[in-house]
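Task: complex structure prediction.
Instruction: return structure tokens for all chains below.
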Amino acid sequence: MKQGHLHPSTQILRELIKIFRELDFEVYEGPEVDDEWHNFDALNLPEDHPARDEQDTFYLKNRRVLRTHTSNCQIRAAKDLKVPIRVVIPGKCYRNEATDDSHETTFYQLEGLYIDKKVTVAHLFSTVEQVLKKVYKGEIEYRVRPHHYPFVEPGYDFDVNTKRGWLEVLGSGMVHPKVLRNMGLDPEKYSGFAFGMGPDRMMLRKHGILDIRNLWQSDLRFLRQF
Amino acid sequence: MKYSYKWLKEYYKTSDSVEKTGELITKLGSEVESISGSASVDAGIIAVKINKIIKHPNADRLQLATVSDGKKEITVVCGAQNIEEGQIVPYAKPGVKLIDLEVEEIEIRGVKSPGMLLSERELGISDDHEGIKILDENTKLGTSVVKVLSPDRIIEAEITPNRGDLLSHFGLSRDLSAASGKILDKPELEIKESDTKAEKEVNVEIKSEKCPLYIARVIKGVKVGQSPQWLKDRLVVCGINPVNNVVDVTNYIMLDLGHPLHAFDAKKVVGSRIIVDEVKKEQEVVCLDGKSRPLMPGILCIYDDKSPIAIAGVMGLQCSEIDDQTKDVILEAAVFDRKSVRKTAKLLNIKTEASYRFERGVDDRGTSYAIKKAAKMIAEIAGGEILSGEVVSGKIQKQGNVKIEYQKINELLGIDFPKTSIDKHLQALGFELNEDYAYIPGWRHDISIWQDLAEEAGRLEGLDKIKPEYLPVKEAPKSGKYYQKEKIKDILVELGLDEAITYTFLSEEDIKTVKIKTDNLLEVANPIQVENRYLRNSLIPGLLRVIAKAPSFDDIEIFELGHIFDKDKERESLAIITCGKSSRQVEKIIRNFAVQISIDPKLFKMYEISRDELKRFKIKKSTVYVAEVEVESLLKEAQFSDLDITDQFEAVQYRPISKFPPVSRDMAFIVDRKYNLDEIEREVIGSSDAVILVEPFDEFVNDRFGKDKKSVAFHVYLQNMGKTMLDQEAETELRKIIKTLEQKFEAKIRS
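Output:
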């Protein structure tokens, strides 16, 4: 009996989610079409913020948006679940840009969110360290550097050292007090961290796939190689 | 932004290599994207004078330049159009090594060229390849240019939108200096002013709160011309084109101190007033880039007595621009509201170096210094006298403050920094401390809460000081919808189906092909590609497209599980599509699947795609069946015996797929039964680069093949990356495969 093939994006997400499960993160999912409040404003990305330009958003005629990141689920997860919250959020996200071999309108993201009392940067670092070690089977050099994301403060990027130099693999930070408030939580009592990673690019590197457009064209010659 | 390392080092005192400094910039939060420019220029490159230029006899766009090193003359071929007789230029003789080539004597269109004249890029000192690098007219002929050029290095760093204060050489140097505990102050400035007061020449009146501060200075009697080479070089390194000495100084100051300035020709300013006001009635203006643009009400502009002369913080207007005849200059250094500049730039769809910085916020306390330095430089470079004093309107904002929550900062970071070290870092960054309050420096628009201070303390202290601390253990349930959906995928894959993930969008063309009504579709308001016009309301069109693209595959069974949309609802859907199967075979798949999760197979809506629709999709297969179900209703009924899913996957030896269709061939071999299918399959792939897929479809043992022999059969898909594969070509590749299998497994091809 012949076996079928799982799409490589499904595969990489499962591998990552397994790693997070070992760290006791459960899976949370949410909508791809959302209102601007969940996707932007609630995350401290007001209309007049320059960072909002970087998002290249698909606006829909019903005044909603195709989510630009799985962070649109941060507020939803916090409202649906009870603290301590420890979730990963996989899903498709969208960017309104012209496609070529390294740019796609559609991409997966895996977001993580952890909220509790007395959560620290040290917790964030330990979590990411464990994840990167598992993803790269311990054989990787990584570095952390400060970075800016409006929905966290402080914010950090993690890079791994590859043959072609440092490569950003994960953006993260401590949930911004404004975002905590929008979750209905008191930032004086609770803190948390969030992070996001792009499984697609990881998967492209894993298999040596050069053209990102192959992913959603789902050519059988592509699908059946996995 | 691109930074000149030489320029940085004027402020940031260091003996570190550019690479080491680059690492520090990254560590402090601005990722260095590249460091370019050569570290050394070959000493064999010498300065020569162009004595004569004539046209190349056989090429319109080439010239022959006769150059002299002071002793002898030679003639070289040159393609650049910027050379003139009398100029001093760099010349490389044959044998000299440039960044990516060694210079040779070559013949170009019938004329020999012993060596070449060089551009900045060829010299390896910048990316500029516009023309030949023109050296200073006093350069001694025949000397090595390495002495005159002392090449710069260019650091390109990504500055995050919150750190507008780093968009200048001084700003970045301040951050770098703070990392080593030093407070960087601007050097004192002495300027010579005339007795005449600037106020006598010009008044400033602010009529909008979108401009909190406006400072003007007047310089009379300048001589507009080209900037000196060193000034041009600095602008070019940072990616700005030199214009003339006055404009170049304003740009220099922007790159130097981060403050965008503007210069008006005083003669062209009607009346003696500068008025900052919002546009009241729409009007058309011509900007400095020569383009005409409409000014909408609300846009902040600079006016003279009659009309607008600049779009505040975005771009000047042609009517007041500095030209060769300009004698008197009014300099502007102002602060414009960040949101207002951003709105204007977006509205007019222009992004300038000035608007980029104003949107991110400038330092109002540094405005006076910036305009003073600009006036001083203009007087030095373009001549003229600076009228006495500034003309100021508006005021500097009160300095904000944040309470330094030492304990909370440590709690958030998960460390134990002493108060003294937090204080030290904040002071080095320019915060003034009073009691437990940090007074925010005018250039730091990103600081408003104590968490921002935590970030500063962390990055200056070094993130390696933060020791990882583990999360408490808490069992996470391996259940829920995600695992159920993944289990469904596993079951379908087990049944032989391939998982497709297709685009969420439908194009106008898809709509026509599928013949669906658009009334209930969710439409994208701002698609930049025609493919992204609507959101899909079904998975079927995407899956039919997959089939349409796979004409050489006979047996197709695929599924997709994904989100679909209509005007007011988003749902998850599961669709299965088969091709070349009878309805009974499809029903069997559904039945097998249904049994495994204990559902009624009737939950699926099953139907055959009409001939007509297949034709519209250009699918040449006769039978295509579809089965669809809403995931929500499926999960409501489903019972799973377990939720164990496959979660370990090896990297594959991926082969890129060709734009051109593959051909498929069936091959059968007789081999010893000790060889397994996998190893034979690997050899088939390994034996020819044209093989894209190998799919075993038959394997059986029979004594008629000989003792312990078996027959194995494969579909082999062959492709050519550059064109459609021809039969003849395929035969050649098949022979390679046969040969390999004969050698490795003593295989015999079955005919």
